[in-house]
Amino acid sequence: MPELPEVETVTRGLTPVMEGFVVDHVVQRRPNLRFPFPENFVGRMAGRRINQLTRRAKYILGYLDDGQVLLVHLGMSGRMTIFDNPVVGVPAPAKHDHVDFVMQGGAVVRFTDPRRFGVITLIAANEVATHKMLAGIGPEPLGNSFNAAVLAAGIARRASPIKTMLLDQRLVAGLGNIYVCEALFRSGIAPDRLAKDLKQDEIERLYREIRLVLEDAIAAGGSSLKDHRQANGELGYFQHSFRVYGREGESCTADGCESVVGRIVQAGRSTFFCPTCQK
DNA sequence: CGTAGCACCTGTCAGC
DNA sequence: TGCTGACAGGTGCTAC
């Protein structure tokens, strides 16, 4: 379920077994995911120490000791699972287990992705800001460079519905379909409102709720998953409680609201909303 | 330039 | 049970 909070949770879960450790070797079981793996991926990873593991937007970045950066995107269905219990061992790879990172620290980190919309590649450290996949990505929503004024400037005069705009990673990084729906519900803004028509107080509410919904989700991941992982070692999946997402036809959770959650399709993607709470 | 739509893949579920 | 169609947490590319 990879939007920003899930990628953050996965990154935090991987850090104790990857950061500061040397990659003994990588097992690559197919030539491509969404894109081909980089030339000689296995050879270029072997023996490299991962100096630092961080997240930018929905990408996991592993800074290697030779100036390369391992870039991982989970796409729609990508998952990471840690195997570091010597008693249990490492299960035989299943159909969609495409890559294993075998760490000298003793852990095996397995990348699984049925739909293969994920990305694994290597870039140079000095390309992190300019590489095609990262250039143009907007501010981190939880960082200092994102605020109501930045959001206001980004949506000013834009003729797209606010829902569609918020999915655009150039405006703000890391929001996906779930948290856009949730943030709009929490701020009481109808998803089909045109971005340029939002009033200042609405933009400020939206800004606050974007931050809060993401912070809540990250906190939920940290508190409901011991070491950010489930008993089977899988990272980033935890019990969410969404107010509108996936709740079409169910009653609105707002106090005193008698309405039923609706669903519309915008830019080809489902939007869940309360027709009464969101104006 | 801004915007919309398609493409990439596989799995799951509802309905017949 | 088997088939079909709709749908799924993302994003790059192309065409208007």
TrEMBL record:
<feature type="domain" description="Formamidopyrimidine-DNA glycosylase catalytic">
    <location>
        <begin position="2"/>
        <end position="118"/>
    </location>
</feature>
<dbReference type="GO" id="GO:0006284">
    <property type="term" value="P:base-excision repair"/>
</dbReference>
<feature type="active site" description="Schiff-base intermediate with DNA">
    <location>
        <position position="2"/>
    </location>
</feature>
<protein>
    <recommendedName>
        <fullName>Formamidopyrimidine-DNA glycosylase</fullName>
        <ecNumber>3.2.2.23</ecNumber>
        <ecNumber>4.2.99.18</ecNumber>
    </recommendedName>
</protein>
<keyword id="KW-0479">Metal-binding</keyword>
<dbReference type="GO" id="GO:0140078">
    <property type="term" value="F:class I DNA-(apurinic or apyrimidinic site) endonuclease activity"/>
</dbReference>
<keyword id="KW-0227">DNA damage</keyword>
<dbReference type="InterPro" id="IPR000214">
    <property type="entry name" value="Znf_DNA_glyclase/AP_lyase"/>
</dbReference>
<dbReference type="InterPro" id="IPR012319">
    <property type="entry name" value="FPG_cat"/>
</dbReference>
<dbReference type="GO" id="GO:0003684">
    <property type="term" value="F:damaged DNA binding"/>
</dbReference>
<dbReference type="InterPro" id="IPR015886">
    <property type="entry name" value="H2TH_FPG"/>
</dbReference>
<dbReference type="InterPro" id="IPR010979">
    <property type="entry name" value="Ribosomal_uS13-like_H2TH"/>
</dbReference>
<feature type="binding site">
    <location>
        <position position="96"/>
    </location>
    <ligand>
        <name>DNA</name>
    </ligand>
</feature>
<keyword id="KW-0238">DNA-binding</keyword>
<keyword id="KW-0862">Zinc</keyword>
<keyword id="KW-0234">DNA repair</keyword>
<dbReference type="Pfam" id="PF06831">
    <property type="entry name" value="H2TH"/>
</dbReference>
<feature type="binding site">
    <location>
        <position position="115"/>
    </location>
    <ligand>
        <name>DNA</name>
    </ligand>
</feature>
<dbReference type="GO" id="GO:0034039">
    <property type="term" value="F:8-oxo-7,8-dihydroguanine DNA N-glycosylase activity"/>
</dbReference>
<comment type="similarity">
    <text>Belongs to the FPG family.</text>
</comment>
<keyword id="KW-0511">Multifunctional enzyme</keyword>
<dbReference type="Pfam" id="PF06827">
    <property type="entry name" value="zf-FPG_IleRS"/>
</dbReference>
<dbReference type="Pfam" id="PF01149">
    <property type="entry name" value="Fapy_DNA_glyco"/>
</dbReference>
<dbReference type="InterPro" id="IPR020629">
    <property type="entry name" value="FPG_Glyclase"/>
</dbReference>
<keyword id="KW-0863">Zinc-finger</keyword>
<keyword id="KW-0456">Lyase</keyword>
<dbReference type="InterPro" id="IPR010663">
    <property type="entry name" value="Znf_FPG/IleRS"/>
</dbReference>
<feature type="active site" description="Proton donor; for beta-elimination activity">
    <location>
        <position position="58"/>
    </location>
</feature>
<dbReference type="GO" id="GO:0008270">
    <property type="term" value="F:zinc ion binding"/>
</dbReference>
<comment type="subunit">
    <text>Monomer.</text>
</comment>
<keyword id="KW-0378">Hydrolase</keyword>
<feature type="binding site">
    <location>
        <position position="158"/>
    </location>
    <ligand>
        <name>DNA</name>
    </ligand>
</feature>
<keyword id="KW-0326">Glycosidase</keyword>
<feature type="domain" description="FPG-type">
    <location>
        <begin position="243"/>
        <end position="279"/>
    </location>
</feature>
<comment type="function">
    <text>Involved in base excision repair of DNA damaged by oxidation or by mutagenic agents. Acts as DNA glycosylase that recognizes and removes damaged bases. Has a preference for oxidized purines, such as 7,8-dihydro-8-oxoguanine (8-oxoG). Has AP (apurinic/apyrimidinic) lyase activity and introduces nicks in the DNA strand. Cleaves the DNA backbone by beta-delta elimination to generate a single-strand break at the site of the removed base with both 3'- and 5'-phosphates.</text>
</comment>
<feature type="active site" description="Proton donor">
    <location>
        <position position="3"/>
    </location>
</feature>
<dbReference type="InterPro" id="IPR035937">
    <property type="entry name" value="FPG_N"/>
</dbReference>
<feature type="active site" description="Proton donor; for delta-elimination activity">
    <location>
        <position position="269"/>
    </location>
</feature>
